[in-house]
Amino acid sequence: MMSRRLADALRDAALIGVALVDVWVNVDTSAPVHLAFALLGACALALRRRLPLLTFALTLPGVLLSDAIFATLAALYSLATVTRRRTLLAFCALALTLSDMTSASPTLHLDLWNASAIITLGYTAATAAAPVFLGQLVQARRDLSLRLDEISRARDHERRLTEQAILAKERAQLAREMHDVVSHQVSLIAVRAGALQVGARDADAKEAAATIRRLSVQTLDELRHMVNVLRDAHGHPTDLTPQPSLTDLRRLIDASGIDTRLKADLPDGLAPALQRAVYRTVQEALTNVRKHAPGATATVQACCEGDTIRVTVSNTPPVRPPFPLPSAHYGLVGLRQRAALLGGTVTSGPTPDGGYELRLELPTEQAP
User: CA-based Rg of the chain, rounded to a whole angstrom?
Assistant: First the structure.
């Protein structure tokens, strides 16, 4: 903004300088009145941006009384770049033509049968019309630039709307597939688990069926909420379920169906992102134990050493072969990405006794 103002000021100063040179060349210094009006017109160019019509009026007497015409041409050009009143511009061009054709005499004599007078009139009218046409051309160019900018913004907005529509369609399709396929299968699991819980006579079998049914119902609730989020295709904010924290670790372990020992000594007031990272790490580790190490026991250790949070989830070797379950192998990848965003690391690997161990390290101060 400052550079633009400086450039405008330099252009105005240059125009005033050229107008003063025009006065010095074309005005007789022995005529003080003529010189005063010519100088007034040259200095009036300082007002051409704010008051272009007044500037033109102040420069016109200099043309009427002398041959200094540059200031009037510059003022008429400035007026033509900002006004849309064509009648006013035509009147100003006519006034400039008559003033230039007139001498100091109060009467104007124009012989239409004199070829020289006709040529002079045409030349003077063309000179007066030139700044009008040039100013209107600049105004049209500026309007065209603004219109092109508006069209570009409109196209960008239309493209964003199209992308949002495509995204909303994909989200709706994904929500429909999740509802039709996943929820149906999980519902069947919950129903069969309930029937098994009622019909089983063994206490362990009843407890296992109850755990399966409880986890299935919980999964259905979370899935139903996720479907609602995906179906929110208009960009309205959707309330998410309460995010897990460290206080939910005990409930997570109790619902996992795995004999797990918890040793947690973490300070209160940890950032919510850190608490969710610890919770999701333990959740993924217990899920892997349940899938890949049936019958194994697990140990969850969480502590804070200095400015580092350390979480270790280890399990014993499996007591029976694991069931073949589908897996996309994205669980550990997601944990590593989550930890990296918080400035931490996730490592995992087998233990010497045939078990498995997952380690999470996070700084207590979140990385930017």
Answer: 43
Which residues, including other chains, have CB under 8 Å from residue 113's CB and lie 6 or more apart? none
Residue at 115: amino acid letter:
A
Q: Can you tell me the distance from the alpha carbon of 14 to that of 25, in angstroms, rounded to the nearest whole number? A: 17
Model confidence pTM above 0.85: no
The yes-or-no verdict on residue 234 having pLDDT over 60 is: no
Q: 89-128, pLDDT tens digit by residue?
A: 888 888 888 777 775 344 445 555 666 667 777 788 888 8
Print the SS3 string covering the chain.
CHHHHHHHHHHHHHHHHHHHHHHHHHCCCCCHHHHHHHHHHHHHHHHCCCCHHHHHHHHHHHHHHCCCCHHHHHHHHHHHHHCCCHHHHHHHHHHHHHHHHCCCCCCCCCCCCCHHHHHHHHHHHHHHHHHHHHHHHHHHHHHHHHHHHHHHHHHHHHHHHHHHHHHHHHHHHHHHHHHHHHHHHHHHHHHHHHHHHHHCCCHHHHHHHHHHHHHHHHHHHHHHHHHHHHHCCCCCCCCCCCCCCHHHHHHHHHHCCCCEEEEEECCCCCCHHHHHHHHHHHHHHHHHHHHHCCCCCEEEEEEEECCEEEEEEEECCCCCCCCCCCCCCCHHHHHHHHHHHCCCEEEEEECCCCCEEEEEEEECCCCC
Q: What are phi and psi of 350, to 5 degrees?
A: -70, 155
Give residue-wise pLDDT tens across range 177-224: 666 667 667 777 777 777 787 777 788 888 888 888 777 777 777 777
Residue 193 or residue 357, greater confidence: 357
